[in-house]
Design brief:
This protein has about 325 residues and is an all-alpha fold. Helix content is about 75%, strand content about 0%. The chain has one domain. Helix 6 runs antiparallel to helix 10 and helix 8 packs across helix 9. The two termini are about 25 Å apart.
């Protein structure tokens, strides 16, 4: 445990409850997007980003941290993060409007697998055979989920084509999300969490506005309410997720990320009549097990690194 971690309160039950709460609200956000109907993804991104600012700003004002939250040494880094984040949200929201809710959520879990690939390619991090094996097995799970859609390619059916575009968008969103995670890992070295969240919401709102000439539509009052609620849910969930990591380590909190599969399946069934297919269940189970193995392996490597640092000063 680092000195910074030692100063933080250790309340794992509170952390887990906050994490699961954030997951439930994120699923509510995704449900509001589906309830709003087939809208331009850029329009959804704007509402998600802009209205997420309000709960975040209120939280920072309540803590007395708002004044310094905008200060940054790396504006270009935040802008770059905003571009990649917008592309990720665009793909994810496009997929949500074309895929069953459980399937869209499960495909998003290709992201941790892609983070490892991107870390090896772009950050030149050492990835050993254990994690490469987990990545390979995880992608088998992704292929199993996608197989029913891929088997319909070329059939000419409009529904199958829409599903294919949804699958491709979900996987593209996971890839962009993986790149965004690498950028966040770089930003946290010099920037506060509040600064990263505020700059991301502001820049993604601005970039989403650039899609206005490409086909935004007039919203009904119901659609507008759903999208505003989507933004507020996104902001509140982000706060809860950040707070969860304040009370326990990432190794304790991260496995509960997969609770969204259960919450999403329940919401999908009761709101939209969506049921996970046998392909989604089997493929999702493989992805989850691969992800849990990666989390366990990261924890083991962290313990080995901490042990090596304790021994190093006494060597020689």
């Amino acid at each position: 445990m680092s000195p910074a971690d030692a100063r933080l309160p250790h309340q794992p039950l509170k952390a887990i409850l906050l994490k699961v709460g954030s997951i439930a609200i994120f699923v509510a956000m995704q449900s509001f997007i589906k309830l709003a109907g087939m809208l331009p993804a850029g329009e959804i991104v704007f509402f998600r980003s802009f209205f997420a600012l309000f709960p975040v700003i209120l939280m920072l004002a309540w803590r007395g941290e708002l004044r310094g939250a905008w200060r940054t040494k790396r504006p270009l880094g935040h802008i770059h993060r905003g571009v990649v984040g917008v592309l990720s949200m665009w793909g994810g929201f496009y997929a949500l409007t074309r895929l069953p809710l459980p399937e869209a959520i499960i495909l998003n879990y290709a992201q941790p697998l892609l983070v490892i690939v991107a870390s090896a390619l772009f950050l030149h991090e050492q990835v050993r055979i254990y994690r490469w094996t987990a990545v390979f097995v995880g992608f088998i799970g992704v292929f199993i989920i996608c197989w029913p859609t891929l088997s319909l390619v070329g059939s000419g059916a409009a529904v199958s084509n829409e599903r294919l575009l949804g699958v491709l968008a979900a996987l593209g969103a996971a890839a962009m999300s993986a790149l965004a995670m690498l950028q966040v890992r770089s930003l946290v070295a010099t920037e506060k969490s509040a600064t990263i969240v505020l700059w991301f919401s502001a820049t993604s709102s601005a970039f989403a506005l650039l899609t206005l000439p490409f086909g935004w539509i007039s919203l009904t009052s119901t659609q507008a309410i759903f999208l505003i609620l989507c933004g507020f849910c996104g902001g509140i969930a982000q706060i809860l997720m950040t707070e969860a990591y304040r009370y326990a380590s990432a190794a304790t909190v991260a496995p509960f990320e997969y609770s969204s599969i259960i919450v999403g399946s329940v919401a999908g069934y009761f709101l939209f009549g969506d049921l996970p297919t046998i392909f989604s269940i089997i493929g999702g189970a493989i992805i989850v097990l691969s992800g849990l193995f990666i989390i366990w392996r990261e924890r083991q490597l962290g313990l080995e690194y901490a042990k090596a640092r304790k021994i190093a000063p006494t060597a020689g």
